[in-house]
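## Example record

The block below lists the input lines for one assembly entry, exactly as stored, with component labels intact.
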Amino acid sequence: MAIANESHQEEHNMQEHHGAGRYVVIWVVLLVLTLVTVFTGRMHLPSFGLLLALVIASVKGTLVALYFMHLSEHRGANRLVFGVSIAFVVLLIGFTLMDFGTRFRLANPPGSQYSDLQAVDIGANPTEGRTGGHQQIQKQGHEVHE
Amino acid sequence: MSSAHVTPGSVPGPKLAAHFASLEVQKHAARLGMWLFLATEILLFAGLFACYAAYRFLFPEAWAASSRSLDLTMGTINTVVLITSSFTAAMAVHYAKEGKNAMVGHMNVLTLLMAVGFLVIKFFEYKHKFHIGTLPGRYYFYEGIQLPGAPLYFTVYFASTALHALHVVIGMTVLAFATVRAYRVGDFNANNYTQVELGSMYWHLVDLVWIFLFPMLYLV
Amino acid sequence: MTPSSSIAAPGAVPGHEAHDDHGHHPSYLTDGTTVKSWLLTVDHKRIGIMYMVWVLLFFLVGGIFALLIRIELLTPGPTIMDAMTYNRVFTLHGVVMIFLFMIPAIPSIFGNFLLPLMLGAKDVAFPRLNLLSLYVYLAGAGFALWGMLNGGLDTGWTFYTPYSAHTTTTVAPVLFGAFIIGFSSILTGMNFIVTTHTMRAPGITWFKMPLMVWALYATSCIQVLATPVIGLLLLLVTAENLFSLGMFDVARGGDPVLFQHLFWFYSHPAVYIMVLPAFGVMSEIVSAFSRKNIFGYRAVAYSSLGIAFVGFFAWGHHMFVSGQSTFNAGVFGVLTMLVGVFTAIKVFNWVGTVYKGAVEFSTPFAYFCGFLFFTVFGGMTGIAVGTVSLDVPWHDTYFVVAHFHFIMVGATIMAFLAALHYWFPKMFGKMYHEGWGLVSAAFIILGFNATFIPQFLVGNAGMPRRYYEYPERFQALNVASTAGASLLAFGFIIIAVYLTYALIYGERVDNPWHSKGYEWLTMSPPPTHNFIGPQPTYPEEPHFYVDPKKAEGEVSDV
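Predicted structure tokens for the full assembly:
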């Protein structure tokens, strides 16, 4: 009756009634972290800005999952489901980025950081409607030279 | 603190469906089902995150410039609003466990109000973008940023925020049902709060996704 | 739990006592005969039967498309249709067969019917969601069919951008239909996982679950984790097609290969959604018809999970020639080999089960033999096309077409037919004609070989897939393939006839195989809540035919 035990244990944990205080603390921490991430985001840190923002977001997300969503009181299967789903998000993004990072340069989209090809001119060619250019837009001198 | 385990039957609880072994198992099943559903939601957004990651990797300059064209104040206010609404949603579960149905209703109404506020702020952000022309793909006509990849940023921006807004609306619907029940029937108690709990879990997921979307879109 | 009174005691031939009770307890088939009692049922067995009706209907539709393709390819030039129609026909063949037939086939029909029976449960965890998944499936199918009747699409079932974003054919409704069907798949998967976790009867621990349950569990994990990604992707492409948002448009810096990444993140694991339940079916059948305990129970169970897991690490092998980086291609190529390891574990265990078994060569076992050959052959060619250097010349030729048909048709349809024959008495309490069963199995297995072995050869000779015309020198092999397809179709017609006959006039049976599977512990067809009286107990392992301790004296190496 392993499953009954698991259900029972989870039920028991969920019945443990915590005061509202815990939620308030989490809420305040989340707000503080939001301010921190806005503050660091505005500094426009050159290389690790996005990384730092994502780390802060992960901390916030973990707090929400563990305490607001009660994952800290749930048992085996629920945690496993959440963990596995996060792992597969990382898998999807990781392998995809690995491709872009190691690709033959001419195979990357033109105009991108990792391509030697000139960008398709996004200010030009309004008649074809391919680039979203509006009539009044003058060509800007942004083209990457080959 | 009522930490003692309540045996089914002592307090009026939900109906036990005939095919479950016990009420505990039934609740466990509901919770596990909800987690699986939330996992699918996470993977749903993962596709967009992958698009974001790929194009951010390819067009870092356009990404930085475009993200700075967004209104950070509005974005921050929206984040605060959503986190606070998540807090009230958690409080609704707290009160449901205590059997304070009126408070459950009040908390959910607060959550719903903040959700509406979120959507209103989002609407004004969208309106501004339609005005200046920072639109996806072929509709892009903003003169300020003419870097390659800039229209892509707004494709990702609109796709992810629109999908998120759709989830906000779905979450509001779910919470509205629990609210009506809390006010009309008022039978939530320590033994019967699954509906509030699952609705609030969904709402936290909406919050969770926004917690990641906010720095990705506004703070690159 | 109180000991069962009306259910056969463990060890006795199960079902007979229940059979006597038949008059008092209507089976699920006769408990309520109105149309409404079927359409609004929450009984997993009735939902499974309704799935069967629709899935078989779509199988027929997809099969007709397949025959049209084969007839068109009889001659090198135009035969019965123009090129544009041909493009639509092969697309619709793929879409119907994959999204409407292959993915729901075994999990939704046999999984729905059997999972609660195998777990000793009265129903799945969320019966109403189960019914919803059927109607969501039908709604999606309706969208897709509507799109097909309104012109159809010509992108191939892979919907690759940029073509799918620009083609003038009816892409949007079909994509949206596939998106909706994804929800049905997710609902079924969620339901099965929760059922397996929470509904197991007392005595059925994780390692006493039948192997079919393990396979369905692994399948459900894939359905839950992978399907949302393609759901999102189909939405994006639909939006791209309708509004040109530019997500995958090279002119705006988008990357079509990113589409392929997201597409195959679902669609490669989707192959295992199709084939893992087939492995589960075969694990049941091989044990039941060899009258022997399954060899290496844990290895087979774990390898199901293993395939589900490593299946997620192999998607890039569909993109070796599409501009993906060579580094990624190498990594994916190596990871692809892992799938072969887990599949081989299963194959060896099945063979180990048959070894020195008292084989009863009836129709399901005939399909098992076909299945074993096709899986090994399809799997080995899969390893071959998963090797980067070999895939480059073979990519997008008929070699690949033949390879994946060996897995999808060879493994999945063989298992589907085996399951249909093996559990036909369980579902309807009637027996089909064994002789005709073997005849049609012969037609199907031979016809299948005749259809696809020529395609291996013609692909190896360089004929690309999806082409409307081909050089004269390929004609002989194409004719052979079409001839094989007709044999295959003939086999299916025989099956349709004798199973329909058996449904009406078949001999009344309970457990014609003397199978020890848990699902046979109740009467056939089962009563509405699966078991009469209290829940049965499960003291024995599943697939328990020979007691190793008692058999030690007779057979030294069991």
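DSSP finds six helices and no strands in chain B. Chain B has a mean pLDDT of 88.
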